[in-house]
Fold:
Amino acid sequence: MPTTPPYPGARAPDRRRDVDAAGLRIAVWEWGDAAAPPLLLAHGGFDFARTFEVFAPLLADGGWRVVSWDQRGHGDSEHAALYNWDADARDALAVLDTIGRDPIPFVGHSKGGSVLMHLADACPHRVSRLVNIDGLPSRQRAPDVAEHERSKLLASELAGWLDHRRQAAGKERKPAATLDELARRRGRMNPRLSIEWLRHLAAIGARRDPDGFRWKLDPTMRFGGFGPWRPEWALQRLPAIAVPMLGFLASVSEPMGWDTTEEILAPHRPANAVFHTVPDTGHFLHIERPREIAEPVLRFLAS
Amino acid sequence: MTSPIELRHAKVTLALHPLREPRAAGARPLLLLHGRGERTLARHAGAAEAWPGAILGLDFTGHGASTLPRGGGYTAEILMADADAALAHLGPATLLGRGLGAYVALLLAGARPERVRGAILCDGPGLAGGGPRPTTPSIPWPAERLDGGAPDPFALVDLARDVRPPDYATSFARQASQLSGLERPLSVCSLERPDWLRAVLDEPGVADTTLAEALAHYGNGLR
Structure:
């Protein structure tokens, strides 16, 4: 691998280990003193644990043992044959089980925040506090289209997904000739993140194959999709969260963002929850503003 | 049973079992989709004896002679893609699904309306799925040992929980009736009628009938 270009404030994890999650190998990464109180930190979809290389050290320096993991199919974890919500929650619980039985804080970004919220609801005895970084549920948008038109839309979505599954065997992600090219490609999904950060991400998140550089992501995973799940179901569960909760929301819409607003959350806000909308910030709040997020998180965890 | 045909679906190898030769030249094949925790059995073909074309049965991922993946993560949609891999091999076919396989047959009839030439929905394990809406969140864990072979204990827990909202099911039924060109893309022959299936029965192009009638309907002259 090429040497990692120095990115200001980025710090590689202090420890790396593997966890066996029902026969699947999950890569676990830790920052901070191994004897410090632990917290669980979850990354978002199409990310990996080391995308926390600036944010996690700030929490570690605040006195925490930060434990994160690469979700199945992401980063250095094994690529699975199957992916679903329950499997991600089981993997998270497998990692949590290696930390201990006492309740600890959960911190998650995007899909990671959503998975940890589900875990907090399913296992309230394992969580002490909850921090959600732009992974709070939104409302289903019902596009105002005629039934027949919607049928055609759904039809092309379904056929497209099935065609993708038909080609999934032996499929590889498109290689990039250079890390820089891979970084610029990622920039299309992360338009607000600096090229320096994206290069850093490529350097720590790509693997070098004979024909070029690729993200370590399982090529069978793809954006979007369909299924029976409704975002409003997650909203309806929000009031069940009994532990103190701190939520951050982006204010600028982005391709990978969730577009959740305080207004959407208001009718479902648990008594113990505080939500902040961060001005002039996109979906990757902890990357755009690591200190502005880490400081209130540390205060919240200490309160 | 003759030895199964091996099909690839991403990291999984699926077993497609030929159960009976065609009786009439040029007749369309019938693809059997088993229920939750089942596998393809010759006796399932016996129930469709009258079918003029070839009869085959697919073992879903984690069932029968197909791959048992590690770590679970099953959805009805992935099983739909399993069944689509069989369609890719067979060409246009009529589907006969039991239980969970009936729900998968509905999904595929909506997703591949030009290739599914009628879907017959019958009783079997897993017809209700996880109900119309989610219940209390929990982290499901298998009741059986994980090294005991097929069916995968993770398939049993994951596929008992897949939520089946009635309006999700009807969107597939509508697509089948709008895009298949068939007057009657779906036939329901089950005694059990979970919420999703009752909603589907109210849609146009869905018949409430017997297995014998449905087999005759799709087997006669429909090429």
Q: What stands out?
A: Chain A has a mean pLDDT of 93. Residues 147-166 of chain A form the longest helix (20 residues).
